[in-house]
Specification:
single chain, 571 residues, alpha+beta, 9-stranded mixed beta sheet
Length: 571
Amino acid sequence: MSTNTYFGRFHATYWQRWTDVGEVEVSALATGTGRLRLMASDTNKVWRIVASVDVQQGDGQQGKATAVRLVGPVDRFVDGGGMWLEIATETDELTVSEVRWTVAAPRAVPPTDIAITTHNRVDDCLNTLQALSRDPGATECIRTVHVADQGSDPIESRERFGEIAAALGDRLKYVRQPNLGGAGGFARGMLHATEGAPEEHADVLLMDDDVLLEPEILVRLTAFAASTRHPMIVGGQMLNLLHPGHLHISAEFADPEVLLMGLKMPGALREAYLLGVDDRGLPVNQERRVDTEYNGWWSCLIPAAVIREIGYPLPLFLQWDDIEYGYRARERGFPTVSLPGAGVWHADFGWKDGDEWQRYFTVRNGLIMAALHSGFSVRRITGRLAQLVSHQLLAMQYGMTATLLEAVEDFLNGPEVLWDGSAGALARVRDIRKAYPETVMHPMSEAGGEFHDRPVVRAANPPGSETLTFLKRVAYQLTGRSAFHTGAVPAGDAHWWHVSLFERAIVTDMSEQGFRVRTRDKQEALELGRRAALLLRRFVREAPAVAGRYRTDLGKLSSRENWMRLYGQGD
């Protein structure tokens, strides 16, 4: 039997790169007869034996456990590799239990607070808290569990909350507050963790309310953070909730000038099937070390020293807040590691439709991120915005276009748009989208004849020339021509160059829970296109100066005083 798995191995390459830990000890209890071997790999997955021990159950010792100890030096893993156990027996039985991987802490382990923000996900949040409360090994690692409840359906109203509160005791701190998004909830926990004098501060582990929690992640993140040479952000990785054997991504970066996040670092794993094998029949693992540029806040530990140095999140509500904080930390000398073997399950991103109100924050906050942490190429950003608008209009996504334009306008209005924590923007964008029927997802119970009577039209191969295809589709729509009057389009085929062939398209929502109806409206497209052209001209003129204002106000917006004001606790 081998423990050479995502959760079962010691990812030695990350420990050698980021810590001064010289060796790892593996201890266990063994009953029976057999052999335990401590194995190691190099960057190419070639294995070697580090240490081994034979267990021989003699007469009169039947059923008695033997304490086993193996030690491996963490010395040949800079570019990649890990360690694991192999357990073998031949004609007899061997039982191995109480396996622990241990390193010597180079300094006192700092206290850690958990910060969870929740908004009307009552059962999910209670499940997460219950998983914490039932794991003694995990709760030993934490000082406080701080829950910021921003919903209209408070979790404290449930009977189960009382049971959890009793189990966590003084560790639980629960607060109700206005909805300021994920940034507002996490910042509240960060403020609590860094109250008082520096020696009273705690590291803070940010965690989404709707994860499926493996409490072991607390042990692994806090142990690693306590061992690093210098303070750094230690991120847990994300596995897909609906496809639990798949790792979302092992290391990522963002390109805010084109509004893209979650890009795979070269050599990283993406949507990897962790229960599978590679082309050599070896387990799928992140063998070569790949360093990340940031880590999502589904589970991410931030040392108090980092918060003291760079401040708190920007009040972006949601989207890009974790990315901006990670890049801000990097610029101040605090890197991020995305630690393999420390993971939680989170709702699959691929099953979320892009045509939602959150798109406003994706665009507006992406532009703010570009202003703060990129060269801010106006030409490149404007080209990307024009591309998005053009494709959305051709694909009959008028509400999504209106959402994007509102985001750009608000960016140009300057950092004052963040002064209310973005709460006003949320209400405004939702009202804007109500005017566009295609933004509404209809359940299948409302399908009627839409699906039964309409042919499913799959997309052909991607266009050989996107420019020529784009010009052709524009000509078709301006002249009122179409290849199809009405048809059903699967979610995976809803590309702009395919949906633009229809006058009316019934498009499956990416969640696979319903459908949306997109109907061509030439006048609406022309009006939105005219508005977009004027706005992009304004962007070219004003954006460089506006970007400078965001850079100037970064410290004020991310300060403790600003967040206290937003919580109604400051001047």
